[in-house]
Design goal:
Number of strands of chain A: 0
Strand content of chain B: under 5%
Order of helices and strands of chain B: HHEEHHHHHHHHHHHH
CATH class of chain B: Mainly Alpha
Distance between the termini of chain A: 39 Å
CATH class of the largest domain in chain A: Mainly Alpha
CATH superfamily of the largest domain in chain A: MetI-like
Oligomer: heterodimer
CATH superfamily of chain B: MetI-like
Structural class of chain A: mainly alpha
Helix content of chain A: over 70%
CATH topology of the largest domain in chain A: MetI-like fold
Largest sheet of chain A: none
Distance between the termini of chain B: 51 Å
Strand order of the largest sheet of chain B: 1-2
Shape of chain B: globular
Structural class of chain B: mainly alpha
Number of domains of chain A: 2
Amino acid sequence: MSDVPQHHATPKRQFVGLTRHIILIVACLVVICPIAYMFIASFKTIQDFFEFPYGLPTIWEWQNYVRAWEEANVAVTFTNSVIVTGLGVLGTTTLASLAAYGLSQPGKPLSTPLFMLFVGGLLIPVQLIVLPLFILMRQLSLSGTLFSIILPYSALGLPLAVLILVPFFSALPRELVDAARVDGASELQIFYRIMLPLVRPALAAVIILDGVWMWNEFFIPLVILTKPATHTLAVGIVSFFGLYSTEWGLVFASVAISTLPLIVAYILLTRQFVAGLSAGALKG
Amino acid sequence: MRLRHYRHLLFVLPALLVYGVFVIYPTLSAFWLSLFDWSGVGISMNFIALTNYVEALQSTELYRAGWHNLIFFLAILAIQNTIGLFLAIQLDARPRGVEFYRTVLFMPVLVSLVATGFIWSLMLSPNIGIINPLLKDLGLGGLAQPWLSSKTFALPTVIIVQAWQMLGWSIVIYLAGLQGIPAELREAAQIDGATSWNVFRHITFPLLAPSFTILTVLTFILIFRVFDVVYVLAGPAGAPAGATDVLGTLIYRNAFGSTGAFAGMSLRMSYAISISVIMFVFLGIFSAILVLWLRRREVRI
């Protein structure tokens, strides 16, 4: 290995290193400026928007947040988003881990066709499914309730969750199951006490992937949740903006409230987020 | 004994039930519902067989929207494979602060497309935006445009906004690919006197073929369902004059009208569903071709 060029601090190397930092800093600015701009805009008065488009606010208008919470319906839509995302993630993770455990047992009948059936769902575009879903919810008398979105979220999260979880369960040694059975554990106990804790990294990936998707999803709730009382954050912001298109301060306070939870979670758990989200991408 | 053999299916049953009712049934019923003349409300449903399909396939709107989706897909793919790959290579060189750079560059993926749309619609606004004044202050006032109301610039602008939100995917996927390439391969080529461009062209890039496949498929899935950014920046009609109309907005508009849910006069649920079925069939064919091509490419390289 002595022939390999060593990383000496030659002038050329320093130049390359410096250029690299400049490129990366510019790229980071392109990312950070719009996000920072969103937070700055959320504190501006309407007058500031017109007079100082790219200055800091002359008065930091905290009232925007209070008014967004009360007048722009964010108190309702934020709660709805939390409920819908929480129950949707719980639903899809529970159903998918049970199914993935069942499908991971080698040589059992129907395992492969059922796995293909679940994973094949990745090919169905939401545009195809969302209108019939809207009609189905009316037929089931679920429209106007949050269940009309929680159930489709739980179902639509399954393809990717099953795809991620099955290989993890398959990789666990079967002797664990046999040993537990000898000890008299029930089938459900074996799943819940022994197998499930062993696939924790895959579960984290599923939870992050589906949580981010459900929190940010717009098209499906826009079509299905027609009642303002059931709107999620994204739908609520768009419909508020449709009515009061000059209330930029309130709109951006709402946008900031919808973005902040994920950004904070991401900064605290960067490693898990990147691993979780790219687990989805690298499998898909 | 036979029952024991099927016991594992009990674990699958709850998921299968939910999946069947809320994914498989709606998918199949789309084909059935598309055969009627139905507004979506009320009980007047006339069976009209394939009339919706004949009308949809003859409308220029369908081809225009599909064409915009295709341009969208190719443009995003091009941006990811140039800027995204380039930034991934910079990170792969492990400069000081690489963790910080990676954290920041991936962040927009967490910002919802609705929030992204609002941020950029304000920045691009002709009255209170910052992009045009910024260009003027930099002495580039000639480049200022009415970005979202110009027929020429509206679609490219919407695409760049979407690319801003999605670029993190390509960086993370390519970075993972680059880190999987053994350093000895590149070092050996350097010792043999290859220039860094030749090392990239003949060693690094071919070995990134699996990453390219993943990224292409992911982009394909995400872009053919593109809706949020277009809806926020250009409205359900794909303003101006349909210059940004995509399949998502076309389907939404026919089902719910262009001025918000149920405000439109002529709602045509069944017609909208027939367009979504056409899209599904087209996507099926297109993705089969895409996967075949990508596989063959991976083998060839």
